[in-house]
Each structure stands twice: as structure tokens, then as C-alpha cells.
Amino acid sequence: MKRLFALIALLLTASCVGPGNETSADAAPDARVHSGAYPIPPAGASRSVPRRGARLADYLIVDKSKRMLVAYNNGRPIRAYYGLQFGDAPTGHKRFEGDERTPEGLYTIDTRNPQSSYHLSLRINYPNVNDRRFAAQYGRSAGGDIFIHGQPNGAGRRMRGDWTDGCIALSNAEIEELWRLVPDGTPIEIRP
Question: Which of 76, 80, 160, 186 would you label with 133, given CA atoms 20 to 30 Å apart?
Fold first, then answer.
């Protein structure tokens, strides 16, 4: 079974990186090109155990419609998380404070909070200049404090459905793993 999983992982990795999709370690984060293909775990594969010798992520892609987060290293997927939870209004780009939406676009993981009310959390640097400018035209705040985080402390089990205020929620085991894989400064692309 381990050989089958390794073969599938090798095939998926090969299909995600092709000519024109390679990146170098010194390429600017916004210059990275990803094929848009995502690794799909084989039935029964664990989603919370890191691959042995996993490298640090240098790019993250969140696909809101597929409820998936993929961590990349040098253009290759190294980890994928499924079943993401969002705000109560998950469709569309976050525009204003309190709209319960998750931002879309290119951002950065700018800090981490080990004392989070949601197990652990990685902050996304929303709002950017364009987000603030858009909200200001309407005399409103763009909001802020958008994180990738775990479940509420003391919840005992995973919450059901979409429940955040615009953040991205994972299981506690998943956020622990992502916490170790993602350094501050990692670009994150959030797709609709």
C-alpha cells in the first residue's frame, strides 16, 4: 500500500509541474507559475500526517470553490488540505468589515499567533492598499485580522459548516502541521 501511495504521489507531482511551470528559489513570489492542478489523495490516505522529510512551503494556494489549500515548495505541491471552512458568506471577495467573506487575491502570511482563540493561527495580510481604497470609497472599513486557523479552543471537535468571520479554518491537527510548514512571509493566493 505504501508503494502504491508513493507511486500516486510521484505521478501527481509530475502532473503539477511541467515545462514553463518550474520556479527557482530566487524567483519573485508573484512571478511563480502554477499549473492549477491539485494533488488528490488516494482513498483512505491520511490528510493530517506530513510526508517524511517535507520541505517548507514557499507558496500557498487556497481554492475556495474546491475548499482546498495546497502548499508548494519550488513549484511542486508538498501538502494539500481539504474541507476548508470559511465565513458565513463564503462566495465572493471580502469587501467590508463584517461581511463574513474570505478575501480573494494575492496576499502574504505575515505573522503567527500561538495564543490564538482558535488553536493556532497564521495571519493573512488583508487588507491591502486596493482593499482599503475600495472600502474607503463607500465610507466603510475593509476589516482585517484574517487568519488561517484551527477550531475554537475548548470546542472538543470540529465545528460544522462555515462559521468563521472570513477566516480559513482547518482541523487542529492540520493547522499544527501547516504551522510547521509555512514561514512568515509566504505568499498566499486565494482563488474564488
Answer: 186
- Scanning 70-171, the segments in alpha helix (DSSP H) are 129-137
Place of cell 507531482: 13
Per DSSP, 27 falls in state S
Distances (CA, A) of 45 to 3, 24, 76: 13, 30, 19
Check residue 52 and report its DSSP letter.
T
- For 4-60, the pLDDT digits (tens) are 334 334 333 333 333 233 333 333 333 333 334 444 433 333 343 444 555 899 999
Distance, CA of 84 to CA of 148 (rounded, Å):
10
Query: Residue 78: left if φ>0, alpha if ψ -120 to 50, beta else—which one?
Result: alpha
- In the block, cell 474564488 appears at 192
Contact between residue 170 and residue 84 where contact means Cβ atoms under 8 Å apart: yes
Map grid coordinates 474570505 to a residue: 102
